[in-house]
Amino acid sequence: xxxxxxxxxxxxxxxxxxxxxxxxxxxxxxxxxxxxxxxxxxxxxxxxxxxxxxxxxxxxxxxxxxxxxxxxxxxxxxxxxxxxxxxxxxxxxxxxxxxxxxxxxxxxxxxxxxxxxxxxxxxxxxxxxxxxxxxxxxxxxxxxxxxxxxxxxxxxxxxxxxxxxxxxxxxxxxxxxxxxxxxxxxxxxxxxxxxxxxxxxxxxxxxxxxxxxxxxxxxxxxxxxxxxxxxxxxxxxxxxxxxxxxxxxxxxxxxxxxxxxxxxxxxxxxxxxxxxxxxxxxxxxxxxxxxxxxxxxxxxxxxxxxxxxxxxxxxxxxxxxxxxxxxxxxxxxxxxxxxxxxxxxxxxxxxxxxxxxxxxxxxxxxxxxxxxxxxxxxxxxxxxxxxxxxxxxxxxxxxxxxxxxxxxxxxxxxxxxxxxxxxxxxxxxxxxxxxxxxxxxxxxxxxxxxxxxxxxxxxxxxxxxxxxxxxxxxxxxxxxxxxxxxxxxxxxxxxxxxxxxxxxxxxxxxxxxxxxxxxxxxxxxxxxxxxxxxxxxxxxxxxxxxxxxxxxxxxxxxxxxxxxxxxxxxxxxxxxxxxxxxxxxxxxxx
Length: 590
Prior knowledge:
The strands form 5 sheets. Strands 8, 12, 14, 15, 16, 18, 19 and 20 form an 8-stranded mixed β-sheet that branches. A 6-stranded parallel β-sheet has the order 6-4-3-2-1-7, sandwiched between helices. By secondary structure, the chain is α/β, with parallel strands linked by helices. 44% of the residues lie in helices and 18% in strands.
């Protein structure tokens, strides 16, 4: 027994010692990784841009980036905010001689690519060079690379130029096999978010809207390439439509690229352009490192202005509660908007929306704060890749709305989904239910049986009321009649270019344009930019267990590109809770 207690005591002491050492190791890693030590940029350097990750609106507050620690993203993922800031800084940095746009896979939406592309076009005004190279050009990366002075492709590489496609995964067949009926209550001819649950192919109305917005996106894509590569747009259309670009030599023949070169040949040219000896290494600075550098020729001084313009980032699906860095929690975003509204130093607000929507109730909660803010100070909306349904709801009360031409927006509609699992329980599993109730509607929403006609009428009335509230809010915010909003609503999806024509968006532009607009409306010229809501530190995430990030990391690693199907199925379960102001499924443009 004495030996047993010794063993137990030794084990406890050992656990304590290991725990203490682990804490010090983790603290040390955090201290090193979090170091704000400035990065020195050598003369004759290249800004090396290589993007092989999904670009978030803001750079994650992750000192473990690059370490792959505990399943947190191992890549040095730079957010759109810092990508744009770095390109702008490089424009006036004498140590940066040019930009090398290296093999990238643009996983983000088209509006994000548009903002980076426009930043690169502005960079070229400095007279510095921009070289693009890849072994594989996806259409998304080629659209970005097409602004370069020289576009090079590996002689044995792959060049994708085939046009756009968009497909929907329909789940009705699988639900039928499981004995599950999706009971739908909706408003809107085009509110097609529920179609995958009740159909096996697109409805005519949905096919019409997808054809319309896909055509608008493709036309913008071709127009951009035509302008920068000096190739007739109709010729570009024919090249894609007839499948002419099959080999690297085809891309060169039709002037989509400027040369077929191996990587060593690219490096030789880059050394020549930067004046580096061929026997020495290039002076490369990565995006993540350049964010920590200080430019010797940057004439800007420390801004001591007391004026502030707040950028409130609303990114991800909309739900109640606090949400997280990747989702919009109505409580967290409302609190952030309220905070900047009450802060006298904040003279104007830019609400950056990148959301497909979600809970209609949570969207209304955020809309209320936007509406109250508009009464006391300017608030301008900048739309990212998508600002639709609930994402448009939270935007519509702003003073003005600015979107990219290829932003996905609109989708003004409401729906609810309630599953009927009776056949699954009774026929598949042999489970039956029985009980008592004190009122006719006491068990309204019970998934073990179908809705009665009276219950459907109650839910339809609730959804109708939600749609009326939504369209009324849009009408008031946009200065239109509710009847007009209803005519362009009905759940229909529009691109930014289309939305300007019908009055849902004021003008085309990026987040920088939104900031300038906010400053002009507030009548200030000198100001600081401040960002909200505050990003959680890695220590905060440790306190929360990192559960969601670790789980997502391993699921993504296992499923790869099929991860989006997993997300779609997860999204179905979310839709079966409360009325939704949500985009029609996950729009994927190929």
